[in-house]
Automatic annotation (TrEMBL):
Family annotation (PROSITE patterns): CSA_PPIASE_2
Single GO MF annotation: peptidyl-prolyl cis-trans isomerase activity
Keywords: Isomerase, Rotamase
Limits of the PPIase cyclophilin-type domain: 116-264
UniProt family annotation: Belongs to the cyclophilin-type PPIase family.
Protein name, per record: Peptidyl-prolyl cis-trans isomerase
Basic residues compositional bias, start-end: 24-33
Region (Disordered): 1-33, 64-96
Claim: Secreted is one of the keywords in the record: no
Lineage: superkingdom: Bacteria
Length: 266
């Protein structure tokens, strides 16, 4: 016959075992949730890098006016000033300009933007046709009043500019060949912070769109590196800190980034 004291101990033991089973089940569910979330994040990050590497970070609309106009939950304040009066010229040219840059000279591009000045050192020696094109377009006022239409914040960290349509589809009317893809800085599949490179739709399809790398980004060496950010890294960080409007890590910047004026000087 079981005593009352033994019975109490048995019931206590059974209660303890049930509690342990419930705790173990909660831990299993928590591990499953963590694994699912981690897998989802990995897919998003990998997709961003893959989009760049396969040529999707190009002239297609990834963050144009429609995305910018859509409200985003928790959208951060705009840290930039209002654009100067004026509209993009939206010029088009039948062919690439004749090469007349001095490949032994130092060229500098200044982007006077609503968020602050960004100065770029251009590599005419290793990317002469690209630098020649940028000087030609800047001299024509092609970049003036244009909006930097795309910001990526996961896996690949760049601000994309140079499109008068602000929709990711603008071109100057001609295509540029790839240059400087053997640059040792990008040999390992990383575009270091401060790199200035061309966006494209594939080999030999460069136009006017370019991107500024504000944080080391893993990318296949398929995008012409033609310069470095000399000054204004703090401006890029301010823009990146405001986030992008799509909430996916790839969309129009929350900051109103407009190039009021672009100049290239020797």
């Amino acid at each position: 016959m079981v005593s009352s004291d033994q019975r109490r101990r048995q019931l206590a033991r059974e209660k303890f075992e049930r509690q342990q089973q419930r705790r173990a089940e909660r831990r299993r569910r928590a591990r499953r949730r963590t694994a699912v979330v981690a897998a989802a994040v990995a897919v998003v990050v990998a997709a961003g890098a893959t989009a760049f590497a396969t040529g999707l970070f190009d002239g297609e609309d990834k963050g144009g006016a429609d995305v910018a106009d859509a409200p985003a939950p928790g959208k951060k304040p705009d840290p930039c000033a209002k654009p100067a009066p004026g509209e993009p010229a939206k010029l088009s040219f039948p062919k690439e300009p004749e090469l007349d840059v001095d490949t032994s000279a130092a060229y500098r591009m200044k982007l006077t933007t609503t968020c602050g000045d960004i100065e770029l050192d251009l590599d005419a020696k290793n990317a002469p046709r690209t630098v020649n094109s940028f000087k030609f377009l800047a001299d024509k006022g092609y970049f003036d009043h244009t909006r930097c239409h795309r910001l990526t914040t996961r896996g690949v960290y760049v601000l994309q500019c140079g499109d008068p349509t602000a929709a990711g589809t603008g071109t100057p009317g001609y295509k540029l060949p790839d240059e400087n893809l053997k640059d040792p800085r990008i040999k390992g599949g990383t575009y270091p912070a401060g790199t200035v490179a061309m966006a494209n739709k594939g080999p030999g399809t460069g136009g006017s769109q370019f991107f500024l790398v504000y944080k080391d980004s893993e990318l296949a060496p398929n995008y012409t590196p033609f310069g470095t950010v000399r000054a204004g890294r703090d401006v890029l960080e301010k823009i990146a800190g405001a986030g992008e409007s799509a909430g996916t890590g790839d969309g129009a910047p929350n900051a109103t980034v407009v190039v009021d004026r672009a100049t290239v000087t020797k």
